Amino acid sequence: MSGQDEAADRMALKAAQIEEAIGETLDEARRKVGRAAEEAGRGVEEAVGNARARVAEAAASVEGAFDETVERTRGFWRRSWIALVRWFDTSAQVAVDGPAADRVDWLRVIPFIGLHVACIGIFFTGVSWFALAVAAFLYAIRMFAITGFYHRYFSHRAFRTSRPMQFLFGLIGASSVQRGPLWWAAHHRHHHRHSDQPADLHSPVQHGFWKSHMGWFLTPRAFAIDRQAIPDLVKYPELEFLDRFDTFVPIALAVFLFWLGGVLETHAPGLGTSGPQLLFWGFFVSTVVLFHATVTINSLCHVWGKRRYQTRDQSRNNFWLALITFGEGWHNNHHHYPGSARQGFYWWEIDLTWYTLKAMSWVGLIWDLKPVPARIRDAAGVAARPR
Ligand SMILES: [Zn+2]
Ligand SMILES: [Zn+2]
Q1: Span from the CA of 334 to the centroid of ligand 2 (angstroms)
Q2: Which ligand has an atom closest to residue 152 CA?
Q3: Residue 196: CB partners within 8 Å, gap ≥ 6?
Q4: Confidence tier at 385 by pLDDT (50, 70, 90)
Q5: Contacts of 310 (CB under 8 A, 6+ apart)
Q6: Model confidence over 284-342: pLDDT tens digits?
Q7: Are 273 and 265 in contact (CB under 8 A)?
Q8: So what's the pLDDT on residue 351?
Q9: Cα 88 to ligand 1 centroid, rounded to whole Å
Q10: How many A from CA of 290 to the centre of ligand 1?
């Protein structure tokens, strides 16, 4: 072989080796590019997937927030609407729970606030002896209906009477703007079961003066009637009516007084009265005074006075409150023995409601007045001192 051929062979060999090396490198590079592309593809897919999930999540949360806002707005309008319906029809139901159940239901209680504000009207209507007498008479007869019937009869069954008398005094009581007899009795029985315990809605010891005086029934929690507490009363549809449409009777009384005042202004000008004057004195002032006098028994009479009996609550006997509430101020006596028709247990404990009930029993309007057994009356003696 010539030297030239040898050199050509070596070059050919070299060329083949170089070609092979290039091939290998190319393959390697291809594989790397392939892997990189594959990885990049996966990364992109993952990124797209993640982005999609985040977008879906955000959309769902916006949708959820929107639904919640719609629901909340709907709930607000629904509650507001029902608060207004409840001015006239207490059967309108709305579920309120949690802390909201113990907050004042401002919309619903506007008429109650209006009742107080309206008293300013007397500065414009003037006053007459006749208007004052009507206001006093309505205070007295309605206070008696509340203490004698709402309390001692409907709540405690301390005597018996006929169905018409039961309705008549339920009707007079309903004109006091203290809801109907069923609501009143159910809540009062609840008070006796839980007196001055945390569950007692109007305990000044547990919840302070204002809540026990009026704050408690301005809340949604106190609105409904616990019908299980009054199985003996729910069977009377006429009482159910008074409770369901509990502003009907007060409005009728207000309209009547306005009309009466107008008639007297024309036909008996000597009385010096008028429609607005009788409306504002006879209805607004009389009702507001009657209301606050009644609820002193919840607020003051568990704080101010003497404790003859060591009852498990903080009830007190208070002469002054007994005077303005026609006997209810003997509240410690009453908690000691709630079933009695009399709350002044001794002759010197003035109890106007008891005298009136006694007189009604003499003419047969009511009967079976439950007395206080002497052994119960004298049980704790008079030694127990205020705690
Ligand atoms: Zn009490
Ligand atoms: Zn009672």
Answers
A1: 6
A2: 2
A3: 203, 205, 206, 302, 312, 313, 314, 315
A4: very low
A5: 380, 384, 387
A6: 999 999 999 999 999 999 999 999 999 999 999 999 999 999 999 999 999 999 999 99
A7: yes
A8: 97
A9: 29
A10: 18
Which residues are found with C-beta within 5 Å of the ion, ligand 2? 338
CA of 354 to the centre of ligand 2 (A): 14
Neighbours of 101 (CB within 10 A): 14
Structure tokens belonging to residue 306? 């003497």
- Residue holding tokens 């579920």? 95
Q: What are phi and psi of 317, to 5 degrees?
A: -100, 125
Q: Where are the alpha helices (DSSP H) in 86-106?
A: none
Q: What are the tens digits of pLDDT across the range 112-154?
A: 999 999 999 999 999 999 999 999 999 999 999 999 999 999 9
- Written as one string, the DSSP assignment of 176-241 is TSS--HHHHHHHHHHHHHHTTSTT-TT-HHHH-HHHHHTGGGGSGGGTS--GGG-TTTTT-HHHHH
Q: How many Å separate Cα 311 from the centre of its chain?
A: 28
Q: State which residues have CB under 5 angstroms from ligand 1, the bound ion.
A: 315
CA 282 distance to own-chain centroid: 28
Q: Which ligand is nearest to the CA of 331?
A: 1
Q: Is 89 helix (H, G, I), strand (E, B) or coil?
A: coil
Q: Kindly give the distance from the C-alpha atom of residue 302 to the centroid of ligand 1, in angstroms, as a whole number.
A: 6
The residue with tokens 């606050």 is: 292
Q: Using one digit for the tens of pLDDT, what is the confidence trace for 20-61?
A: 888 888 888 888 888 888 888 888 888 888 888 898 898 888
- What does the DSSP assignment read for 246-299? TTHHHHHHHHHHHHHHHHHHHH-GGG---HHHHIIIIIIIHHHHHHHHHHHHHH
pLDDT, averaged across the chain:
91
**How far is CA 61 from its chain centroid?**
35
Q: Tokens at residue 86, please?
A: 């409840």
- CB-based burial of residue 196 (10 Å sphere; 0-12 exposed, 13-18 middle, 19+ buried)? buried
C-alpha of residue 297 to centroid of ligand 2, in Å: 10
> What sign does the dihedral 312-315-358-229 (CA atoms) show?
negative
Residue-wise pLDDT tens digits, 88-117: 888 887 777 788 888 888 888 999 999 999
- pTM of the shown model: 0.81
